[in-house]
Amino acid sequence: MKLLHFVRTAAVALVGCSMALGAWALGDKPLKLIVPAPPGGTMDIVARVVGQQMALDIGRPVIIENRPGAGGSIGLQAMLQAPADGNTIVMAASNVLAETPQLVKMPFDPLKDVVPIASVARSGVVLVTAANFPAKDFQGLVAELKKRKGKSSFASYSPGTVSQYAGLILSDRAGLDMQHVGYAGSPPALQDLLGGQIDVMFDGMLTSMPLIKAGKLRPYAFTGKTRSRFLPDLPTTTELGYPDLQFRGWVGFIGSAKLPADVLARLQATIEKAAQVPSVLQKLNDVGLEPELSIDTPALMVETRALSERNAAIVKKYRIQAN
Length: 323
What we know:
Blueprint: E1 2-3, H1 10-16, H2 22-25, E2 31-35, H3 42-58, E3 62-66, H4 73-81, E4 88-93, H5 95-98, E5 114-130, H6 138-147, E6 153-156, H7 162-174, E7 179-182, H8 186-195, E8 200-204, H9 205-213, E9 217-222, E10 248-256, H10 261-275, H11 278-286, E11 290-294, H12 297-317
Parallel strand pairs: 2-3, 2-4, 6-7, 6-8
Antiparallel strand pairs: 1-3, 4-10, 5-8, 5-9, 5-10, 5-11
């Protein structure tokens, strides 16, 4: 656990907080922000960037607690076991609710027992190879992989994630017959990709962008509905004729479905204020995330349910199983 910012004095906190934060923000308990993943990943980075600003705004410590394991269910379960008073919430990505439960049985219903409080960023997926791969664009990549039909491979940063879904869909639709190789995270997968042991990978922007900028990875396509602001010249998979290869999830705060309405509203006001600070927006941009604030819980729930249903269909079609 790490304290993100020293607590301001009560007088300064009263001046710095808006009236919308109400009594919840003036409590004496720290705000615990559980991250259901190891330090250093997308969820952890967003938690620390936004959490630090929240601590400044509410005059209370925000404590980050990393609780990885079981596809995120350990961290979510820890949150659900705490009182539903708004003092313990989770920073996670939509995949924790919409992807992982397709393969990992959770001790709660991820679409009923928890609610999205707010999303603060979006994270897309990019198709990459090592920079020395003999294909300059997407069409060339497909042509090269067809030459290696049945002998090429694609990596995923974890089985049962969009990284695997996208590879399977491309392999199927383009007739490539690629072999899937699952890894425990992006770093080891990218290492083998750079080393030539793996041919291609659909990876998150956060982990791929530094290597793309360094000229070590070559990007071919982005899986968002629109082009990435970080790679504006890179076509989307929809532009390339693969509209079913759209994977772009939200990253944000999750709480218990038992949160009182007034507490939920106060949390949303706190998050909304922190997420719009220019320095926070810049830090999210710097790591390859697209800041996008939403405090519309019903809309986020509808989106997450649709993602879950879509992913369930993909898992069924390709007979994906947990390792």
